[in-house]
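User: Predict the structure for this protein chain, please.
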Amino acid sequence: MNQNIINARVTFRNSPIHILERFTIRDLENAYDQFKEHSGLDECVIIQTCNRIELFGKAQNYDINKIKKTWASLTGLEEEAFKENIEFVENGEALHHLLKLTSGLDSMVVGEEQILGQIKNSITAARNAKASGQHLNNLFDKAIRIGTRIRNSTGINRGGISVGSMAVKLAEENIDELKLKKILLIGTGEVSTLVAKSLGRRGYDFVVTSRTLQRSQAFCETMGGKPIKFEEVLSGFEKYDVLFVATTAPYFLVTQERIIKAMKERKNGMMILDLSNPRTVDEKVATVGRVKLMNLDQIAEMVEKNMKTRLNKVKSVENIISEELSVLEASMKRLDAEPLVKDVFKNIDSLREKELQKALQMLNEKDEKKIK
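Assistant: Here is the predicted structure, written as C-alpha cells:
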C-alpha cells in the first residue's frame, strides 16, 4: 500500500478496566485535530467503548512515537504508560483487526451486537468532524458490510449473552429474590439499554435516572422502567437494593461517602454493578460493610461460562475473514492506485490532443475540415 492504514489500541485484552479508563479521550473533536496535526495522520477514526479505545489512521508517513505523544497529551498520561498497554499494527494486520471487530470476534462477549453499532457511530462521528476521508470511509463501510454478512451467515451473534444481560445475571446470582428488590438504573445509553432489555425480559421492575428527567422519561417510554429525578437518586441511595451504573461523568457519581450514609439507613445489603468506562463508582465503595461492588473486569469471568455455543463458530468466522481480507486489501490497493491511473489518463489525453494539433497543422484547410 502506498498509503498506510494503522491501528493503535488499548483494550481489555491487555489492560484491566482501572488502567483502560485512563486512556479514554474526552474531547473527540479536539483529538481528531491533534492527531492530524501532530502525528502525521491524514485521516483518523477513534473507537471508544467500555472495553477498548482504538485509533485507526491513514498516512503516507507516520510516527508511532508522535501518535503516543499526542494520545498522552490528550489524556494527561505520561508516555511511559503506553509501553505495556498499547498494541500497534498496520496495513494487512490493521484490516484484519477491523474485520474481527465488526464480526464480533474480538469482543469480550464473542459475537455481541453492540460493537457493530459503536463502530457505525464512530465512523459517522469521524465523518462529521471531517477527520476521515476517502480511504477510511471506504474501509469502514466495507468492513461493516462484511461484519454484518459474517454475523448473518454464521449465527455467531446468536445464543449468547450481552454485557447488560450478564450484569443482570450477576445480580440474580448474588441477590436472593431479586424480583422483590428495588432496582435502580443510572444512565440511558447503549449499555443501559442492554440492561433495561434484560430486566424487562425477566419481568423485573426498575427505576431509571439520567441527568435530565426528560431523557429518563423518553428512555422509559421505549425501554420500560419508571423515570426518577437525578437529584432524588443522589440523595437517596438507601432506597435501593441493586444499582446498575452505566453512564459517563468526569467524577464519581457513587461515592464512598454517599454509600456509607445510605447503609446507615439500611438493614439489608446492597449490590452495585459499575458498567461505566471510565468508572463512575468509587472503588472505595467496596470497603463499605454489606456492599458488594462489581465492575467490567469481573464480568469477564462470566463471559467464559456463556460462550461455548459461539466459540464453536469462531473457526468458521476466521475462515471467512481470511477470504474477505484479501478482497479488502485489493480494494484498498485499487484506491491507492486511482490517483495514478487518473494522472496516466490525463497525460494520455493531453498527449493525444497535442498530437492531433500537430497533425492538423500539417494538413491543408480542406483536409482539416474533412477530419473535423
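The longest strand covers residues 4-11.
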